[in-house]
Amino acid sequence: MENQLQIYNTLTRKKEIFEPINPPHVGMYVCGPTVYGDAHLGHARAAITFDIVFRYLLHLGYKVRYVRNITDVGHLENDTDELGEDKIAKKARLEKLEPMEVVQYYANRYHMNMEQLNVLPPSIEPTASGHIIEQIAYVKEILSNGYGYEKEGSVYFDVVKYNKDYNYGKLSGRKVEDLLENTRKLAGQEDKRNSFDFALWKKAEPKHIMRWPSPWSEGYPGWHMECSAMSSKYLGDRFDIHGGGLDLLFPHHESEIAQSNAAKGQDAVKYWMHNNMITISGQKMGKSLNNFITLNEFFSGKHEALDRPYAPMTIRFFMLQAHYRSTLDFSNDALKAAEKGMNKLFEIYNSLDRLKASAKSSVDVRKYEQLCYDALNDDFNTPILLAHLFDLSRVINQINSGKETLTKEDIDFVKNLMGTLLFNILGLRDDHEKDDSKLVEYLMKTILDIRQQAKENKDYATADKIREELEKLNIRLKDSKEGAEWSFV
Amino acid sequence: MENQLQIYNTLTRKKEIFEPINPPHVGMYVCGPTVYGDAHLGHARAAITFDIVFRYLLHLGYKVRYVRNITDVGHLENDTDELGEDKIAKKARLEKLEPMEVVQYYANRYHMNMEQLNVLPPSIEPTASGHIIEQIAYVKEILSNGYGYEKEGSVYFDVVKYNKDYNYGKLSGRKVEDLLENTRKLAGQEDKRNSFDFALWKKAEPKHIMRWPSPWSEGYPGWHMECSAMSSKYLGDRFDIHGGGLDLLFPHHESEIAQSNAAKGQDAVKYWMHNNMITISGQKMGKSLNNFITLNEFFSGKHEALDRPYAPMTIRFFMLQAHYRSTLDFSNDALKAAEKGMNKLFEIYNSLDRLKASAKSSVDVRKYEQLCYDALNDDFNTPILLAHLFDLSRVINQINSGKETLTKEDIDFVKNLMGTLLFNILGLRDDHEKDDSKLVEYLMKTILDIRQQAKENKDYATADKIREELEKLNIRLKDSKEGAEWSFV
């Protein structure tokens, strides 16, 4: 099948044929999590959106280097007053808050969540704190090209100067003139020439824990700097795809574009991709609205807004039912519907092994291949793809009930097509096995009850047969007065 | 129970009462993997040894900050000849080998292995490449104290100079005089004053990919430097425990001691701990001997030296059956015996729930608590601990068979003691559930066979009862001519 993948490019505001800069290689950079808290639906949506892009590009045969960063340079501060009371504690490294311990804890939990959601690990997952040298070098380049200025140990990006030579705002559509009118002087912004100038390097306040030496001060890099420096290091000064949530478009991605032009004289990114936001019952998600639900809360069901727990695959399927550039409204009903739909598809897929083949096919199932890939090639349109798979499922049901027929070859074709799409490209996973430990207990209880009943009915043939069957599975029964017990041999 | 934990300190060559520098805090640093290949038994032994230390210290109520590094600054080189032929490739960042991609791949696999072995993640897992600034600062301190010298862009540690003020060799027992006699000039060592001087910073050869700017050259830190710099950053200039494999004792740990004295004027570590090596059928493990078996090969059974696959918990139990300071000889028979022993303990533990309580206890089970903790407190003597648990299991068996009796309270005591020791402290996990997916299929097949038989016997009551029981488990039966099919609702 011909590759006609089209990607909506936020920069040009239109769908474009995907043509990598250096085929068969593809470089992709996605803004990862800030690891000072548990991941929520917003993190899941970005991760799943670009997991589909990653999986589909791999499926198309590209060699993809996928870089997703971890933002671990945050703003944790020592409470110096409290520590000041205890001079021994001041000396003891171990008694101080260590930001990297917090970072490690939440990074581990994030990775666990990603594994639960069946999101593939990126090729490289660099941390901001691990690339201070590269960020300092990048800031130096901007300074030497005249687009930054130092003030009191901090370095700022000169937006007005830059905008004379380039176009600050070309990604978000904002204009510097409007920014000038709409911003006020804020406290602590006195060092900047303009309030919308952004920090490339910040001198650390005394309370700030994370700090590194630099030519300008002991401090830490500005937020936008890590993505420019790390994407340049691992993907080069010009690469194919940069992704992230729509909330990062301005100022983060706009500033990344400015930084790369200021330092390297060119745009770093060919295709900018942004996934849209999640609303909860129509409202924006936010900590103040008490509708801020973490993934772990979804999986356990422990949040007042949730009727019950939802499996990671339900969350994933729910996300895939909307196009990544549409907003997606969460509700209990929507999740339950997603779960039902997904299980239906799995059931149909599993039924294919038992489907009876006929000499002739009475329906055309081959057309679904083109339809499904057309959907994917149309800017990763997963809801349309799923609609085709549901159509195909209805066809399979008709064959199940004898209304239509398929040849062996066509059944194999459907099995292969559905398997590739559901599991390889959409990254779904039939998780029924996850609860199997409990299920084994229940099933064993059911079997032992039947055997007990058989014995009471003097049906020893059945009772013995059950014992024999279980022994084949290395399960040993021990009869006692209270009934049978079982254990693995 | 009184805490009388004693730890064998490699530095003093004797067991010492464990007294943390700054209780209740404990700082522990362990040398982690070099992530350029899959983990093998040696990695597993170090990880499990210090996982037991970590778990037991947590159990004793200490606040442990456990740092285990990842060595990702390696020696990957570009093959310049090959690249030289293709000038486009030379320009394309994406077409070059990216060491961090290799690092990420093997780090992910290492983490997966650790999870399979139920090894707890450390509090902080810093990478060498992420701490170049800290390492450069450390080298500067050594230079300014006069214990290092620069030559041709590289910096070396002056062992002879250091040995005049301190004692190089106090950990390993080696003497500098002997080192002087026993070493020869090797190629590429011309820059050093003495062949046993070690690099603190190396100027990168043109082919070397991983390189960073420094005051001396574009290069990379010496191997011993990362552990000194990262332990100092996260645990302070003096901390409690430093662990690693015995193969790291010299020159790695010896050089760490030298570095910390040279830079900070004091030993960094109070207790040095070393786990012993693994032999395979009496031979040293090594790539050239073809007895180098990765953990993944153990888990899959795919290695000519293996009779069959071994579960991660079998590997873990096998390791715990030897004291960490003894060598441990691997063989198929030893692993099979370990598996059998472990399953026996799990079976006994699981049988406690079904154990019949009596009014009086005829045996003293309370004494096992002291015995077990005495073993742990004796330098983490897990084989002795397991011997006590096997003794206790024999007692439980006698109660099972009615030869001895226990009260409800004593049964609960045993349950609690065994559970804490087996699962919390020894970190074992009853993994029978792992194969449950297949088991569910077999059990369902057994149940459906019984139901089919019942229907053929016109025993519809049983057939219906089976259907009802399964429906409670959300399993739906669909009868057809070929027999019943089942699916989850």
Helix residue percentage of chain A: 40-55%
What is the CA-CA span between the terminal residues of chain A? 52 Å
Main sheet makeup of chain A: 4 strands, parallel
CATH superfamily of the largest domain in chain A: HUPs
Q: Work out the helix count of chain A.
A: 17
Query: Low-confidence parts of chain A, pLDDT < 50 over ≥5 residues?
Result: 80-86
Strand order, main sheet of chain A: write it out: 4-3-9-10
Largest interface: A-B, 68 and 68 residues
Structural class of chain A: alpha/beta
**How many individual domains of chain A?**
3
Here the CATH topology of the largest domain in chain A equals Rossmann fold
Which of globular, elongated, flat, extended, rod-shaped describes the shape of chain A? globular
Q: What is the C-alpha radius of gyration of chain A, as a whole number of Å?
A: 28 Å
Tell me the total number of β-strands of chain A: 15
CATH architecture of the largest domain in chain A: 3-Layer(aba) Sandwich
Strand content of chain A: 5-15%
Would you mind describing this structure in some detail?
The structure is a homodimer of 489-residue chains. The first copy, chain A, has 489 residues and is an alpha/beta fold. Chain A has three domains: 6-275, HUPs (Rossmann fold, 3-Layer(aba) Sandwich); 279-429, Isoleucyl-tRNA Synthetase, Domain 1 (Orthogonal Bundle), CATH 1.10.730; 435-488, no CATH class. Helices cover 45% and strands 14% of the residues of chain A. Chain A is built from 17 helices and 15 strands. Chain A has helices at residues 41-59, 80-84, 87-91, 99-116, 132-144, 159-165, 176-182, 225-235, 249-264, 295-300, 312-320, 332-351, 367-377, 382-400, 408-425, 436-456, 460-472; strands at residues 6-9, 14-17, 25-30, 63-68, 148-151, 154-157, 199-203, 219-221, 239-245, 269-275, 278-280, 283-284, 328-330, 475-480, 483-488. In chain A, strands 4-3-9-10 form a four-stranded parallel beta sheet, sandwiched between helices. In chain A, strands 5-6-7-8 form a four-stranded antiparallel beta sheet, with helices on one face. In chain A, helix 1 links the parallel strand 3 (25-30) and strand 4 (63-68). The longest helix of chain A is centred in the C-terminal third of the chain and has 21 residues, at 436-456. Chain A starts with 5 loop residues before the first strand and ends with a strand. Residues 80-86 of chain A have low confidence and may be disordered. At the A-B interface, strand 3, helix 4, helix 5, helix 12 and helix 16 of A face strand 3, helix 4, helix 5, helix 12 and helix 16 of B.
